Q: What sequence folds into this?
């Protein structure tokens, strides 16, 4: 195990309160987290290998040691491409299936750090605080998670006097040393194995809700912090071939319960300021850098679905049918559309007033909004091509070592592939289209960026429509 792998695993042995099946667990020894932690550790260890660290890292100006490129502040097109190469390296290592590998949260933090002077008017301490934390996270290789969403207790009522009943995370006490938090947040993807949690609200807040308007860095092992995990998908009883994605890439989601959790002032980046928090949410640098990473990962994930669909169509001899070819063509169009938008966002990026080169957000936003529709459609196409073959699969690859092995090899064979290989291929596809992990990912791609209807409507609201209207004016003026 490399030094970075060792360091990461050790950092999680800090008495954090992780709850699964009604029991407090140590995720570094729990079998349900074994595959995921191994995957993350291997990614982090790339910084230890000379042939890989150039692709995923750069030299910290402070320590002169390699750190992840998600922390790199771009000043040119070439710098943004450097960031993309790092994201591609990690996403291709996981086929885009792991969505919260910290490069997203690290990119958000990097964006806020780059635009930190914009927030001095809200809190004169913000620039210094976020600079200190950014450098700590960068140089200590911290695995970060962003936590924003409120629990779904009663979404119809958001009146300020209902805050406690709604479970909304709020500051309930202030002292000379820091603040105390009560309430809850969801969905804490990757929170159980994160080194720090960056917490802030997603929705616009009114002045009488200012106790909700906070941006904090919370330590996962804070007394009173409880993380309640959903059902794990990575069953340790399953062989790798039976659940190849669930075994390695179950990111885990958790409800975070704050029971009088203390946060010191140096980690309270903003507080009691709805206007400042809305600006944080809309920060163009943070959004462009973070969603640039998200689009890179989306592209890899769509390529992965397309690759599986191609293999299945060939394995069952369906690739000669016109309707299957049309479906495959649609998948390829998805991939190339997202690729084109990604390239355009990088090429048509601009340097802002902080001398940060950021990808063109119009293209990033378009790719992100298309992704919420493309991915469910990609899975539908995969289901249509594999059809009943997904239902009639052997329970286990071990069935091919049973007394019926000769018959199994005959009746589970493909058009141009052996029965065991065909079964492994279909089980891989099933892990995307039919398993609990696959269902979770379809929901994730639909909603991870927020309400897809509102996001698409926002694209209309923010678009420069005047240049289009000019095309009509000459005919009607």
A:
């Amino acid at each position: 195990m490399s030094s970075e792998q060792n360091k990461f695993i050790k950092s999680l042995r800090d008495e954090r309160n992780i709850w699964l099946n009604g029991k407090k667990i140590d995720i570094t020894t729990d079998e349900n987290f074994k595959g995921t932690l191994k995957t993350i550790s291997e990614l982090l260890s790339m910084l230890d290998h000379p042939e890989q660290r150039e692709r995923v890292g750069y030299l910290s100006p402070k320590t002169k040691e390699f750190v992840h490129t998600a922390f790199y502040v771009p000043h040119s097109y070439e710098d943004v491409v450097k960031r993309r190469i790092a994201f591609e390296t990690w996403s291709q290592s996981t086929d885009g299936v792991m969505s919260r590998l910290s490069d997203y949260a690290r990119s958000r933090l990097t964006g806020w750090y780059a635009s930190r002077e914009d927030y001095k008017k809200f809190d004169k301490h913000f620039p210094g605080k976020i600079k200190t934390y950014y450098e700590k996270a960068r140089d200590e290789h911290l695995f970060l998670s962003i936590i924003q969403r409120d629990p779904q207790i009663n979404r119809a009522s958001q009146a300020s006097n209902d805050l406690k009943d709604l479970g909304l995370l709020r500051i309930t006490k202030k002292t000379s040393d820091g603040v105390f938090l009560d309430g809850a947040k969801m969905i804490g993807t990757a929170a159980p194995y994160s080194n720090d949690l960056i917490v802030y609200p997603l929705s616009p807040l009114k002045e009488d809700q200012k106790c909700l308007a906070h941006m904090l860095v919370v330590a996962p092992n804070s007394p009173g912090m409880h993380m309640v995990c959903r059902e794990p998908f990575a069953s340790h009883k399953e062989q790798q071939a039976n659940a190849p994605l669930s075994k390695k890439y179950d990111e885990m989601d958790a409800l975070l319960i704050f029971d009088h959790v203390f946060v010191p002032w140096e980690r309270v980046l903003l507080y009691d300021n709805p206007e400042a928090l809305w600006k944080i949410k809309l920060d163009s640098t943070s959004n462009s850098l973070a969603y640039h990473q998200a689009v890179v990962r989306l592209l890899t994930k769509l390529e992965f679905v397309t690759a599986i669909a191609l293999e299945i169509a060939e394995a069952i001899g369906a690739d000669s049918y016109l309707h299957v070819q049309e479906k495959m063509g649609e998948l390829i169009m998805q991939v190339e559309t997202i690729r084109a938008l990604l390239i355009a966002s990088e090429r048509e990026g601009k340097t802002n007033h902080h001398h940060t080169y950021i990808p063109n957000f119009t293209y990033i936003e378009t790719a992100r909004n298309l992704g919420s529709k493309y991915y469910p459609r990609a899975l539908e196409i995969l289901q249509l091509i594999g059809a009943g073959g997904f239902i009639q699969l052997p329970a286990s690859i071990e069935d091919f070592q049973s007394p019926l092995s000769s018959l199994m090899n005959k009746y589970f064979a493909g058009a141009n592939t052996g029965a065991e290989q065909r079964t492994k291929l279909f089980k891989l596809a099933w892990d995307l289209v039919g398993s609990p992990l696959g269902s979770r990912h379809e929901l994730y791609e639909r909603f991870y960026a927020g309400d897809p209807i509102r996001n698409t409507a926002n694209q209309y609201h923010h678009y420069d429509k005047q240049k289009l209207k000019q095309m009509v004016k000459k005919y009607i003026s």
Summary: The mean pLDDT is 93. The two ends are 72 Å apart (CA to CA). The longest helix spans residues 284-315.
